[in-house]
Design a protein that fits this description.
Blueprint (H helix, E strand, L loop, with lengths): L3 H12 L7 H19 L9 H8 L2 E3 L5 E3 L2 H14 L3 H15 L6 H31 L6 H16 L2 H12 L15 E3 L5 E3 H22 L4 H9 L4 H15 L14 H11 L6 H24 L2 H6 L4 H15 L2 H10 L2 H4 L3 H20 L1 H17 L9 H6 L8 H5 L1 H15 L8 H10 L6 H14 L3 H12 L8 H20 L10 H20 L26 H13 L5 H14 L23 H12 L3 H15 L12 H12 L10 H21 L7 H5 L1 H7 L11 H19 L16 H10 L5 E2 L3 H9 L6 H11 L3 E2 L10 H14 L10 H11 L3 H29 L6 H6 L2 H8 L8 H17 L1 H7 L6
InterPro entries: Nup186/Nup192/Nup205
Subcellular location: Nucleus
Organism: Sesamum calycinum
Length: 975
């Protein structure tokens, strides 16, 4: 029997490779599947503790399977028994785990807790490998991955046999088991909460169990699409009501059966009238747990669709003979519960908007969205459902108030100016339904193609809005539907014509003009106070502007040039202090989409910005002890520090930077090397980015939006700042500039050397200060060990099996060895392309420098031994998986690495004639080699190959000039 790790390696190399599998790989795959059938049938089943085995371990003399007797000391016994109690494992198997951990990691000198965590980590890694293996096989059959038809058929036959043997029931049992706070699940109160994963990172047990449950849920859904479920399967799954993760999977199950269009997959449940009657009685029973009831409501919604499809498939005569069939009575009663409990809001809050769903595998998310699309298309096309939606709309129009009191300008400055979410709107099913439809098509716009049902629903939903809550939800849905050229054109025409009596582009621009006239009139009247902005108007304008942004951004490049000839009204409210910052953010976001419409439009936007937007006054740096100006000016600094910072929300500043970035990116004249943008750069550097770690953020995603916007600006500025020989004169005159700075032009106050130094400091602050465990102190106190010694320990120890990064990254590793012979390049390429690689002792003999370069990459990529806890890449992996803002954080890391590369490339040009005023980045890094390793560790970040490539490129730059890395390369690894 192959091990789970070997099985997964064979499956991934055959099914996930970029090239079609060879005949030998296919044979190896089928052979591995056959050998692993017992493991799949008894999925994650392990022998339980036994008194006799416990006594044997306590005797300190244990005989392992396929091995001779081994002796244990007191520490080994304690760890083995602790593993058995915490994981509900057989005591002999726990001893085997300790032995495996010693072979993998080397346990000599480690603390008992660390040994326990390493051994437990191996066990969870084995579980994850087996789960991933069966999950990958199911995906290969259900999802179109371009595999050979015969190979898919062979895999499907094995999976069908497994499902018939009880695999689906085992999946449900495991989901239920892992939901309990006991040793076999989440762990009891006395169980250890953390362990060390395969890369040596400390991870929480609950997080790992949650990931296992997610994979099991995927497997359950995929198994249903491989082999239709019987009525007994449905009842058994639903009986486990506390297994929340199975309930919406069950809903997909029922819908997939009813919506089946595959000729060889005939519906099973649709033909069983007795099952429909019995299951309806079961599904309508109310429970006490509100969260469980929410998931059951998801099943009820799918059950409605199922019954509708069954009814549509019946003969017309049967429908005419009965005024209201039993199935239709069931549909009506189920619809009442679905709308009363507002299942659409539950879908949004507990499933679609969660980090697990947002960060999940793209193919799986597409599959779920595709079935939701089918459900809603069927739902909205049926007369009974349409009547219920109409009733919900009328109720929302009657209950929701048209306006609510607006926040005053003083309230906005004091931090309470952002309108709170209206609780009544959250509870209204019609509003939630509109947002639910929006969410389905937001990621999968191609599902809208030819979807007449949705566009018919749009026309119905857009009529006669009497309050801003339903109007905002409707416009949000329109913005989602405008996410491709076809949708953008349809939405533009809907709002351009007379389809809706009160909704259109004219309403947007007229409202902007009305408020601008009111504000202008107030300013012209002595002693008058600026009128307050109504919350309803502000939110409706934001929704309109979001639609405008999507229409222009995704519209046909030729057609959109003629859509909005006059965009001046979008600028006129930007300078007024009583306009809410979130509305200013929406205005600038909409304006930014016009930058790429045409060069003429770009120049027009620059002109209007200078005329209407808030000024950027570059004053003293934050924290400087200069006297404040006597006159308080409402500029971007004031709005950032006195309005947005108090509210802990920064939509205006983020949109301002993004708009400027869009404009600067389209500039073709860079003859002045970007000096005309130095004022903007100083504002962003000194007042936005500098204090950002100390600011509070109501939404963590907004924090990383701000960071990404700033980093993009710094990257563009650095790219434009080509350094020439004439820049050496700027350094000579720097003392004069510092004295006369107040009277010198702004571009003379910041020579090229200062721009490079500031952007370099950005790199150190963001990357080394935030994405590594210790701030960049550059002092010897942060050197608890010698990095070269650590590398020596690694390569003289028994070398573990490693996983290579993306093939393009491997290619970049090879480019580090230009002096290699062709035979070495080919030998190494053939050697490292497999997913698993033992590079000792069979590493090819080759040029020493080339070998050491690649070895250092490999050492960083899969470093097992670490006396110094580099958590940067591990932190990013955790956040990318578990947080909504994970992708923004990933983008910030990528931009930081790209900026570091830009700085290093320019260092090679300027470092000689700018010393000692300017220190190259590699010299700064040399003061703390730990940070170098933290930088290079991103070579093992598998989510984004571009980050791996950046890390490898940094290594290739460092090894040319950095004495620390050179010392690592010149170390004799005895290879």
């Amino acid at each position: 029997m192959v091990s789970p790790k070997q099985l997964l390696s064979v499956i991934e190399s055959t099914l996930l490779a970029r090239s079609p599998p060879t005949a030998a790989q296919r044979i190896e795959l089928i052979h591995a599947i056959r050998q692993s059938l017992p493991s799949f049938k008894a999925l994650l089943s392990y022998p339980p503790p036994k008194p006799s085995d416990r006594a044997q371990v306590q005797s300190k003399e244990v005989r392992l399977r396929d091995a001779g007797p081994i002796s244990l000391d007191d520490q080994d016994v304690q760890i083995a028994l602790k593993l058995s109690e915490d994981l509900y494992l057989n005591e002999i198997d726990c001893v085997h785990l300790i032995v495996s951990a010693n072979q993998e990691w080397g346990l000599l000198g480690r603390e008992p807790l660390e040994i326990f965590r390493l051994a437990a980590g191996l066990w969870y890694t084995e579980r994850r490998d087996l789960l991933t293996a069966i999950y990958t096989l199911l995906r290969a059959v259900v999802l179109d991955q371009g595999l050979d038809v015969d190979l898919v058929t062979d895999i499907q036959s094995y999976l069908e046999d497994l499902i018939s043997s009880g695999l689906r029931q085992r999946l449900v049992s495991l989901i239920k088991e892992l939901s309990r706070e006991e040793p076999r699940g989440l762990g009891g109160p006395s169980c250890e909460s953390y362990f060390l994963d395969s890369k040596g990172a400390l991870v929480e047990r609950k997080a790992v169990i949650s990931r296992e449950r997610l994979i099991l849920g995927h497997c359950l859904v995929l198994s249903i699409l491989v082999e239709r479920a019987s009525s007994k399967d449905i009842k058994d799954i639903f009986s486990e009501r506390e297994c929340r993760g199975t309930q919406w999977g069950l809903g997909l199950l029922e819908a997939s059966d009813a919506l089946s269009t595959v000729p060889n997959k005939a519906p099973v449940l649709s033909q069983d009238a007795s099952f429909r009657r019995e299951f309806h009685e079961i599904v309508m029973v109310a429970g006490n747990d509100t969260v469980v009831e929410g998931f059951v409501d998801c099943v009820r919604l799918a059950w409605v669709v199922h019954l509708i499809m069954v009814q549509d498939g019946n003969d017309a005569k049967e429908t005419l003979n009965s005024t209201l069939s039993n199935d239709m009575k069931s549909v009506c009663s189920c619809l009442d519960v679905v709308f009363a409990n507002n299942v659409f809001q539950f879908w949004l809050d507990k499933i679609l908007h969660t980090a697990a769903y947002q960060n999940d595998d793209e193919d799986m998310v597409y599959m779920y969205n595709a079935y939701l699309h089918k459900q809603m298309t069927c739902f909205l096309s049926h007369p009974l459902a349409r009547d219920k939606v109409k009733e919900a709309k009328e109720k929302a129009m009657a209950m929701l108030s048209p306006y609510r009191p607006a926040a005053t300008h003083n309230q906005m400055i004091e931090g309470s100016g952002h309108p709170p979410e209206t609780s009544e709107a959250v509870r209204e099913p019609f509003v939630s339904l509109l947002e639910f439809v929006s969410e389905i098509y937001q990621k999968e716009p191609e599902l809208l193609s030819g979807n007449d049902v949705i566009w018919t629903f749009v026309k119905f939903a857009g009529e006669d809005h009497t309050n801003f809550q339903t109007l905002v939800a409707f416009l949000k849905m329109l913005s989602t539907l405008a996410c491709n050229p076809e949708g953008a054109s349809k939405v533009f025409e809907l709002l351009q014509g007379k389809t809706f009596r009160l909704i259109g582009w004219s309403t947007l621009f007229e409202c902007l003009s009305i408020y601008e006239d009111k504000f202008k009139h107030s300013l012209q009247s002595p002693g008058a106070v600026l009128p307050e902005f109504q919350e309803g108007d502000a939110k409706a304008l934001v929704a309109y502007l979001t639609v405008l942004k999507q229409v222009v951004e995704n519209g046909n490049p030729i057609e959109r040039k003629n859509w909005f000839p006059d965009i001046e009204p979008l600028f006129k409210l930007l300078s007024y202090e009583n306009v809410p910052p979130y509305l200013k953010g929406a205005l600038r976001n909409a304006i930014a989409t016009f930058v790429q419409v045409s060069p003429i439009m770009k120049d027009t936007i620059w002109r209007y910005l200078e005329q209407y937007d808030l000024p950027v006054v570059v004053g003293p740096n934050v924290g400087n002890s200069g006297s404040a100006t006597d006159t308080q000016v409402y500029d971007m600094r004031f709005e950032l520090n006195e309005v947005e910072a108090r509210r802990e929300q920064y939509p205006s500043t983020i949109s301002f930077i993004n708009l400027l970035n869009s404009l600067i990116a389209e500039e073709r004249d860079v003859s002045d090397r970007g000096r005309r943008f130095i004022g903007i750069f100083r504002f962003i550097y000194d007042h936005v980015f500098g204090p950002f770690p100390q600011r509070a953020y109501a939404d963590p995603s907004e924090k990383w939006q701000l960071v990404v916007a700033c980093l993009k600006h710094f990257q563009m500025m650095l790219s434009m700042y080509d350094v020439g020989d004439e820049d050496s004169d700027a350094v000579t005159d720097q003392s004069h500039i510092s004295v006369m700075g107040h009277s010198s032009p702004i571009h003379m106050q910041l020579p090229v050397v200062e721009v490079l130094k500031r952007i370099r400091n950005v790199c150190l602050l963001v990357f080394l200060g935030l994405f590594t465990p210790y701030p960049m102190a550059c002092c010897s106190s942060l050197l608890p060990y010698n990095s070269c010694s650590e590398a020596a320990c690694l390569f003289t120890h028994e070398v573990p099996k490693i996983h290579l990064p993306h093939p393009e990254c491997v290619s970049q590793m090879l480019k580090l060895s230009k002096s290699c012979a062709q035979s070495w390049s080919k030998a190494y390429q053939n050697f490292c392309y497999p997913l698993n690689l033992y590079f000792v002792p069979s590493f090819p003999k080759c040029h020493k420098d080339a070998r050491r370069s690649v070895l250092f990459c490999v050492f960083i990529y899969d470093r097992k031994q670490s006396a110094y806890p580099f958590e940067g890449v591990n932190f990013l992996i955790t956040e990318r998986t578990n947080q909504i803002y994970g992708q923004l954080l990933e983008k910030a890391v990528q931009l930081s690495l790209e900026i570091i590369i830009l700085v290093m490339e320019k260092d090679s040009i300027v470092s000689d004639f700018w010393r000692p005023l300017y220190q190259p980045l590699d010299v700064i890094l040399s003061q703390d080699p730990n940070q170098v390793v933290a930088l290079l560790e991103y070579v093992r970040y598998d989510f984004q190959p571009q980050i791996q490539l950046c890390s490898i490129k940094i290594l290739s730059i460092l090894r040319q000039s950095f004495h620390f890395v050179s010392s690592v390369f010149t170390f004799d690894y005895s290879l």
